[in-house]
Amino acid sequence: MKIATIIIRTILGLLFLYTSVSYFLHLSPEPVSTGDFKAFQLGLMASTYLFPLAKSVEFLCGLSFLTGKFTTLANLVIFPVTLNILLINYFLTPDNLPLAVFVFVGNIFLIFAHWENYKGLFKMD
C-alpha cells in the first residue's frame, strides 16, 4: 500500500505541476474548444481570477505531493479542483474523461491512504 501511495502521489504531483507550469508559462498551445465547453471556458476566462487561482492551487498541491510534505492538507485543498475536473469532463468533454477519473480516484485513494490524519475532523465532541 505504501508503494502504491508513493506512485499515485508522484504521478498526481507531476501532472498538477505540468498543467500549472504549462498554463503560467504558455508552454503548450491551448486546445481548440467547441460547443458548450467553449461557452463554459469563456465564462471562466471572463472571471479573470479563477484560472490563475486554480492553477496556483494545482502548483502548490503538486509540489506538496512530490515532496511528501503537507499531503494531508494538499489532499483536502485539491479535492474540489479534482471534483470540478471530473464533472467538467463528464458533462462537457467526455473524450478526456479517463484522465479526469484517474485524477479524481487518485485523490480519493490518497485521502483513504492517509485516513488516520483525517479522523479528528469527524469527531463529535
Automatic annotation (TrEMBL):
Keyword Repeat attached: no
Protein name: DoxX protein
Pfam families, alphabetized: DoxX
Source organism superkingdom: Bacteria
Coiled-coil regions listed in the entry: none
Compartmental location: Membrane
TM region(s), chain numbering: 7-26, 46-66, 73-91, 97-115
One Gene Ontology cellular component annotation held by this UniProt entry: membrane
Naturally occurring in which organism (per UniProt): Flavobacterium frigoris
UniProt membrane topology term: Multi-pass membrane protein
UniProt keywords, alphabetically: Membrane, Transmembrane, Transmembrane helix
